[in-house]
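call fold(seq) -> tokens
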Amino acid sequence: PKPQKSLNTPATTSIDRDNIIPMIALLAGACIFKDKKILLVQNRPDHREPLKWGMPGGHGNPGETLTEIAIREVKEETNLDIRITGLSIGALATASTGTEFFVALYIATPLNLNQLKLQKSEVHAIAWASLDDIAADKYPLREEKILKPLILRSFTSPPAPIDSFIKVDFSSEH
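ret:
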């Protein structure tokens, strides 16, 4: 069989588009609300988007489901344990770097809000932002073209069921 080419093939090489395996990174996060405000975390100064804001969340590890990613990332960044109650939105997004991501943004209830703690190894600051704060760009958002509409939607639209996405294993023969 013909070898598969990746999307990282140098520009000087011709690409056989029929044999590209698309690489899409999985990202998941959670919208946590208190008193009609959403919890935001600020990137560390050494992050590729320094001091930008967003919901707790991040990249998946191999084998993790989208909900597992969101739960782990929230814990790592804020020390909160959460119960996911719905899916705000799922989106296929292209970052400013050209990387494609599948983003799942969940609505979650904190189980230990009194233990909210800035995890300095992960984030620089924590804030609670209102819908008006987000609409007025009070908190400069990371990947704003992607994130702002997702956050605004989480304030204004009812969530979908958490099982809106399922994991299907096509690797074994039936």
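The two ends are 23 Å apart (CA to CA).
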